[in-house]
TrEMBL record, chains A, B:
This is TetR/AcrR family transcriptional regulator. Residues 15-75 form the HTH tetR-type domain. The lineage of its organism: Bacteria, Bacillati, Actinomycetota, Actinomycetes, Kitasatosporales. InterPro entries: Homeodomain-like_sf, HTH-type_TetR-like_transc_reg, HTH_TetR, Tet_transcr_reg_TetR-rel_C_sf, TetR_C. Residues 38-57 bind DNA. PANTHER family: HTH-TYPE TRANSCRIPTIONAL REGULATOR RUTR, TETR-FAMILY TRANSCRIPTIONAL REGULATOR. GO terms for molecular function: DNA-binding transcription factor activity; transcription cis-regulatory region binding. It comes from the Bacteria. Keywords: DNA-binding, Transcription, Transcription regulation. Pfam families: TetR_C_11, TetR_N.
């Protein structure tokens, strides 16, 4: 309660306004890419002052990463279907294929920009990779507790690498966007066997 | 023989000169990136005429991809240690960690440029992905013939995704270049178990 009040006082931005602003940032990102995106353009598009944007988010990298994170509606750790296979399938089924294709293009663009933007790389690690690692760790811990995965299974530390690898290499190697059908086959063929989970 | 003669006649470029030219292209690529690389710069750096470059390679995308491919000294299909584990470890041990870090940065830059350059994407698929897929298929076929991998193992079609995924996500998720130590652990923890190969 105290935290909510203090955030409101600091920001004077309603959750609706914040969501609207993040949506505009993602639209701009799709239109011009990270490098060409300016805080001026965000300010103009959202009818905000640049001062407000900087005060609220600190900078372009933080704003973009917050906007990306906001577009994830469900937190990975909240997915709990009762089996690891069910959880991983659910994780890649949160978006329909069309949304996944749009987001895959967006993430590719951002991953590329990270290559030469240190502040974006740091913000991405803090706001996206670390929370996602934490979420996957919880999903895995429940699988270990259920006896599905051995606690000393060496693939445990590579779960996020496997999941992101399937997502990222689909476009790179097959020139096709990742789809639910591709990702669920990949999970069944690669991720679960690597973790020692029986799939048939 | 006939092919070698006709290539020589068409190109009038010796293998030494070709290697020197590819090296210069990779240097330029590291210095300025794909988008800023011009055929003028390649011509100046290598003291060639632009006409020769275009006649020989057709264009920037083809020249860059040929240069990348040329930097691979050993073909994947020629690696044959007698076991799949030996072959995969050998594949990630062709370069020392320092060279691998340099090449990883280079490949990230090219992967990034593929995002918005259709001709680069097509050249990359034809000259890099397809031959590499073929090479891995031969390595796997020998493992199947030795009885190490079941011919109907569903992970077979994802071998390149797994290998490239490990390589690419290391930088993205851990902000560290891929090293031999990382890739061999990843192969032992993920790739071989997914293919049903016993590692202990």
């Amino acid at each position: 309660m105290t935290e909510a009040v203090s955030t409101a006082r600091r920001s004077r931005i309603t959750p609706e306004r914040e969501a609207e602003l993040y949506e505009a940032v993602l639209d701009l990102l799709r239109e011009v890419g990270y490098d060409a995106l300016t805080m001026d353009a965000v300010a103009a598009r959202t009818r905000s002052s640049k001062a407000t944007l900087y005060r609220q988010w600190g900078g372009k990298a933080q704003l973009v990463v917050k906007a990306l994170r906001h577009s994830k509606r469900v937190r990975t750790e909240d997915i709990d279907t009762g089996s690891l296979r069910g959880d991983l399938h659910a994780i890649v089924s949160l978006e329909d294929d069309c949304t996944m294709e749009r987001n895959s293009a967006l993430m590719r663009g951002v991953a590329m920009a990270m290559h030469h933007n240190d502040d974006l790389r740091v913000a991405f690690r803090d706001q996206m990779v670390d929370p996602e690692m934490g979420g996957f760790r919880q999903v895995l811990q429940r699988a270990v507790d259920r006896g599905e995965v051995r606690p000393d299974c060496p693939a445990i530390e590579f779960l996020l690498h496997m999941m992101v690898g399937g997502f990222a290499t689909r476009a790179l190697l097959d020139d096709q966007p990742p789809t639910r059908a591709f990702l669920t086959s990949y999970i069944d063929a690669v991720v679960l066997p690597a973790l020692g989970v029986q799939t048939d």
